[in-house]
Amino acid sequence: MAVSFLVSLSLVLLLLPLLGGWKRWRRGGAARHVVVVVLGDVGRSPRMQYHALSLAKCGFSVTLLGFCNSKPHDELLQSNRIQIVRLTELQSLAVGPRLLQYGVKVVFQAVHLLWKLMWTEPAAFIFLQNPPGLPAIAVCWCVGCLCGSKLVIDWHNYGYSIMGLVHGPSHPFVLLAKWYERLFGRLSHLNLCVTNAMREDLAENWHIRAVTVYDRPASFFKETPLALQHELFMKLGRTHAPFQAHFESGDPVMERSTFTERDTQSGRVTHLHGRPALLVSSTSWTEDEDFSILLAALEKYEQLTLHGGSLPSLVCVITGRGPLKEHYSRLISQKHFQHIQFCTPWLEAEDYPLLLGSADLGVCLHTSSSGLDLPMKVVDMFGSCLPVCAVNFTCLHELVKHEENGLVFEDAEELAAQLQMLFAKFPDPAGKLSRFRKHLREAEQLQWNESWMRTVHPLLMDT
């Protein structure tokens, strides 16, 4: 097996110069073609989906390479300018030392990505998401050299800092990943990043010039009309108990969810009197989000409710997939709340914006492995006019303005106090939650495509 793998690798390396020459000869239409690479799940990479959509709207044809584990947004699937090419994801080997398992996976990804890129239509630019950048940065740079494509790296974070959460900052893997990112990151033609703090760090420590392109919400993130809220709640109620009405209305023409009711004759939808508040948090269930903070805050909230506090019951919806979901699901199952219900669904791409636009409060527990990136989930919440409580870290102030568009907390105790304050006398239209929502409605909500046209498009034309 090892011999056949080495033979295959040798054949690929021998064919590369021939393929490179052939691709240069075919470069007639390359100026209007861009390859977008995500060495991860396309459906869980919204920023790269938005890049692809913006490129298509500017007249480029786009080939989007990535894993297809979840459904991307419909707008991307329906675009006749965007072609999605599936990458094969090699699952971790079950045998051998961890170093060997990781090495085989990296080599497989490198050869597979290299082969896919070389057989893709010639492109003027290769857009690459980092992280994960190992081995993608080196492969994309190599293809760019062979085929005349310019490499654009979009720095969402540092891959080595994410690895450091698992292995520790001084682990040989982590130090190697840091050296690799610094070396190959300097070889790109254009660098984008998500915060000014990251731009300064790249310049100071890695000598990489980058341009800050803040995440902005896509146009489909907005407040959800009440009728659509009811449809969503009824749909989710078919599979998730917290959305199901707890008692019958006694009126056969009334259709109820936990939060809303609809008169089936007139079609009129209203909020239920005494409804619970809907709290939403979205996550990748990774080490940089500590959900024990939320659970501890909710325990304090439960005690306040039991002792006669004028507080509503809560339905907490935590969306997403990731390695720590099972761990936190076990912790949640061990809690015995009377006034708080949990739901941890994986939502369809079209339902997630509707949920954010229907919620009363968003909670973000993202702390950033590097301290230099911002949680896109909060951007989407703001686009949906959803107030947010977010755990504090180094550059969060670039997004969340304390007491303007939400609240910043340091620990579970402070979050519990904020929940008590925000939900006091819920759903009072004069309360603080309503004031935050009003501020978000009145603030200039620059959408992704507008921001992209102002920043990235001119850079491509000048590169």
Automatic annotation (TrEMBL):
Its EC number is 2.4.1.142. It is a single-pass membrane protein. It catalyses: an N,N'-diacetylchitobiosyl-diphospho-di-trans,poly-cis-dolichol + GDP-alpha-D-mannose = a beta-D-Man-(1->4)-beta-D-GlcNAc-(1->4)-alpha-D-GlcNAc-diphospho-di-trans,poly-cis-dolichol + GDP + H(+). It is an enzyme of class 2 (transferase). CDD domains: GT33_ALG1-like (cd03816). It holds the Pfam family Glyco_trans_4_4. Residues 1-21 form the signal peptide. Residues 49-211 form the Glycosyltransferase subfamily 4-like N-terminal domain. One of its GO terms (molecular function) is chitobiosyldiphosphodolichol beta-mannosyltransferase activity. It comes from the Eukaryota. InterPro entries: ALG1-like, Glyco_trans_4-like_N. Mannosyltransferase that operates in the biosynthetic pathway of dolichol-linked oligosaccharides, the glycan precursors employed in protein asparagine (N)-glycosylation. The assembly of dolichol-linked oligosaccharides begins on the cytosolic side of the endoplasmic reticulum membrane and finishes in its lumen. The sequential addition of sugars to dolichol pyrophosphate produces dolichol-linked oligosaccharides containing fourteen sugars, including two GlcNAcs, nine mannoses and three glucoses. This is Chitobiosyldiphosphodolichol beta-mannosyltransferase. It comes from Carlito syrichta. The gene is ALG1.
